Amino acid sequence: MKVVILCGGVGSRLAEETKLIPKPMVKLGGLPIVQHIINYFEKYGFKEFILATGYKKEILEKYYKNKKRVKCIFTGKKTLTGGRLLKLSKYFKKNENFLLTYGDGLSNQNINSLL
Asked: Of 53, 51, 89, which Cα lies nearest the Cα of 67?
């Protein structure tokens, strides 16, 4: 099952950090927030990640350039959540399930229980 991570917003509430980088790339403990999210899902056996990018997309693309399990898909600079999902629809088979999360939220949710 694929995991979609929304990484396209401007991050205006963190403006001092996000002038140069997108919010999911803000580092916590030496790693970008989005990498912490990917690591957490990998612990539960997930191996395919789609990052729905927008604002400062090139920074995410450069960081994940050589990671075969992570695809960065540009979904527009000002696209809202529903629009981003619509633009990603071609990456899924008909009726294929996937998980969706935001690229700036960390949690200790048990993914197996969630499913």
From this structure: 51
What global pTM score does this model have?
Answer: 0.94
User: Is residue 50 a contact partner of residue 27, using CB atoms and an 8 Å limit?
Assistant: no
The three-class DSSP label of residue 102 is strand
Residue 102's closest CA among 14, 33, 44?
Answer: 33
Which residues of the chain have a pLDDT value below 70? none
Q: What is the pLDDT of residue 19?
A: 80
Query: 31 and 64 in contact (C-beta within 8 Å)?
Result: no
Tell me the per-residue pLDDT of 57-68, one tens digit each, with 9 for 90 and over: 999 999 999 999
Task: Specify burial of residue 97 (Cβ count, 10 A radius: 0-12, 13-18, 19+).
Answer: exposed
- Sign of the CA dihedral running 85, 99, 72, 25: positive
- Exposure string of 18-29, with b = 16+ CB inside 10 Å and e = fewer, is beebbbbbbeee
